[in-house]
Amino acid sequence: MTDAHRLPRTVEELAAHVGGTVIGDKNRRIARCNGLSSAGSEDISFLSNHKYAIHLNTTQAGCVVVGNDISTMQRADAWEPALIQTADPYYSFQQILVLLHGFRSHAPIGISPLAVVAKTARIGKGVNIHPFAVIGENAQVGDNTNIYPHVTIMSGAQIGQDCIIYPSAVIYDQCVLGNRVILQSGAVVGCDGYGFATHKGIHNKIPQIGNVVLDDDVEVGSNTVIERAAMESTVIRKGTKLGNSVVIGHNCRIGEHNLLVSQVGIAGSASTGHHVVLAGQVGVAGHLHIGDMVRAAAQSGIAQDIEPNKDIGGTPSMDLKHARRVYLNFIQLPDIVKRLREVESALEALKDKPQP
Amino acid sequence: MTDAHRLPRTVEELAAHVGGTVIGDKNRRIARCNGLSSAGSEDISFLSNHKYAIHLNTTQAGCVVVGNDISTMQRADAWEPALIQTADPYYSFQQILVLLHGFRSHAPIGISPLAVVAKTARIGKGVNIHPFAVIGENAQVGDNTNIYPHVTIMSGAQIGQDCIIYPSAVIYDQCVLGNRVILQSGAVVGCDGYGFATHKGIHNKIPQIGNVVLDDDVEVGSNTVIERAAMESTVIRKGTKLGNSVVIGHNCRIGEHNLLVSQVGIAGSASTGHHVVLAGQVGVAGHLHIGDMVRAAAQSGIAQDIEPNKDIGGTPSMDLKHARRVYLNFIQLPDIVKRLREVESALEALKDKPQP
Amino acid sequence: MTDAHRLPRTVEELAAHVGGTVIGDKNRRIARCNGLSSAGSEDISFLSNHKYAIHLNTTQAGCVVVGNDISTMQRADAWEPALIQTADPYYSFQQILVLLHGFRSHAPIGISPLAVVAKTARIGKGVNIHPFAVIGENAQVGDNTNIYPHVTIMSGAQIGQDCIIYPSAVIYDQCVLGNRVILQSGAVVGCDGYGFATHKGIHNKIPQIGNVVLDDDVEVGSNTVIERAAMESTVIRKGTKLGNSVVIGHNCRIGEHNLLVSQVGIAGSASTGHHVVLAGQVGVAGHLHIGDMVRAAAQSGIAQDIEPNKDIGGTPSMDLKHARRVYLNFIQLPDIVKRLREVESALEALKDKPQP
Fold this sequence. Notes:
The structure is a homotrimer. Chain A is an alpha/beta fold.
């Protein structure tokens, strides 16, 4: 748990910051954010998942951000956390976290003499390049970007402004990253697409002459892999967030503001609309399109185009409500088969019954 | 999109290169390869997936490689792409890509003074070792191999000729790579196998004293992991291509010319024949054998031996045609249960009917 | 196959080391461990999986460790391997492997002048830090720990004694590792949790101000990712072993002595009891608890709390015995539907039959 970077604030100041309503002691000073069950009197916590509502009655937090539907607690002790009511307590708490703690600060080390930066590379102002980073020929790095140790940026790659490239991430040649892009450790952007032309039993490697384009505000999780296009570009549009160990095949076109959770795999040339959510371990076949706003439950197997606004689940993926019925029946299969057997027996008995 | 490395060619020259037949302007000059919808008059494209056939009518490509079954287009405009007909347009296009673009070129930097190469290591001729690569004691690197930044080759490992080891790949001690092996970024070859002897509730680590052997022409995707054998060797045979984030357990023996697509996981001591294809996210249990030429659909769960030449799918894996019927019934389960309920009711009604 | 590090031993000495009973030549000298089918007269092998029992009749091993239920072989040749009978041959063989081979030895290189170690970092005695490792400000590294090349340990991280951090592993700021922790290559400990507060269509990054705590004797496989907590800590308790490409979401609390096999994914805030086993590719939803001693079959999808001591399997996860029946019925679905159709037809025929 890192200390808060910033000054303490009163409950009232925090409520004003998020446009919330205070119930209780508005003058209490809050120094940091913390979980409901760990928080103390100088800490602020939040409740957005009703699964944890019971902790409201016991938390020692100085303040709790809650939804507008919560105004009371059932306390057994004398402590009274202040409440800040807002319409979206999760988002409000995010704003308070940023206010009190900020994001990870990046040491202003400049360009380490232990980094290798090609003479033809163009490096912006305020860039920090850590020891043992490698910036290739003709690469570009925008202002205020942080390049951590053991990052490789191959020749001709372009990195925008205010990016954070964590240790051991790799950006292959000619790939393009927008502004405020974050690559967590071990992320690989632009490795060769999995393209082979099989002829007489030999898998002949197809030169992958395209690249990867990550638009502004994309975040890529640790050890996630985005293949470069065979030709043209594999594209991840603005604001999309990829979890860890995700694999994006070559020539995919991922829309804006998607959430692709850890271990999702998307085969080549698939595309998604905007605000698509694929939960953990979802698999998507190649050459298909997932429409805007589609949400897929964890482990779904998507093998055909999905129309916009659908909630889906299961393998093969189905309408989510239908999938729930299917899986409910699925786990009852032994009973279903037993009932079928009974029906068969009853029918045999009926048939065998001598007609009068 | 990288520029073509090589000289332009006429349509006729390209057709001759792949043994194809020209329909249309054979003298047109082609400078590069490109996708059907992006290509211009100096570009060549291809059509092998009939899903994209409609683009033939609108593409502005100078030339398109097509199958022998395609000889006409339905153009609304005046442009006429030349066609090169071949029996296997995907393979023909691969040959043209290699001709016009070649593979990624590797800077002839020699052995960087910023790399660490053990004195006892044996390095071949024409080898490029980038800054911050580490080559351990008694390791060997064959002629013309490229070792990118942040690669670690631990003691006693042997790398063949003409290999490409991309940034941050790791080769553990004593592992052996053949010639023309490619490791994409973050690939790990020869980490300890997942071997523990559980005794009185403690998982005791079993020394993993074997190694990994990758035969010639193996390619390993980004962040893919191949565990070293507990004893003896984990083996990947000639020509096999692994996607990204694949995991191969210790003591596996993967046959020649397999395609193991991204996120496939194979548990310890499993083996495969030649030309096996496992699509994305397939899981394979330990200690089993998958026969020659088997092809498994994405997300299959393989928990028993598979006979050669089978196409399989599903979890648990089944004959593919059967699997399709099963999954078709599966998504109809609510309807099936409804029909069963109706049958039960009808039967009750029949039984209750007073016999005359 | 690495050579044994240690002196040869007689069969009798080995039997005494593991508390076993010798059948056959107790004076034979054994130099190394090997697989049943590769072993020679100076090698010791083992049989714990009855699938391989047939090899007992042909192995050329000098000695084989077997269970107490095995005392004879059906040999066609004149060779007689000595047998060492024990109650737990797998564990006994592990002890013999450690005795004859030991674990990987780590070169006593001290702190490489090519590593970057912050002046404020505290480094214990007997620590080996390889070239191009980076140890951040205020980080701590305990006695006898090995830090391999290209490891990044960010500011404030604490590493215990006798740890092994293999090449390119990354430990983010403020994370805490106990003693004897092993990180295989490419493991990432403490990257940002996947936390975003979505507001008006924008996914706002939530500062992840917690950390990761790995207790003593935890092993983390290659390219496995453990997210830092949003607040407080993501915790992996003592003795737990993670395979490769596992993903542990933020704020998870994984119990003692778990085995989480390769490609398992656990969503945020889930927790497990002690001695939980999750086989390969299992997925676990967020905010749930898996009880002590639960074992889940490969590819299971766990979406609700699991009571202690359950063996489970399937998606959605079920009692394992029930799951086996369900999947048996599942693959018979086409036949089940056919039977239902026949029942429907017979019923129609009965209904249509003119009553006398």
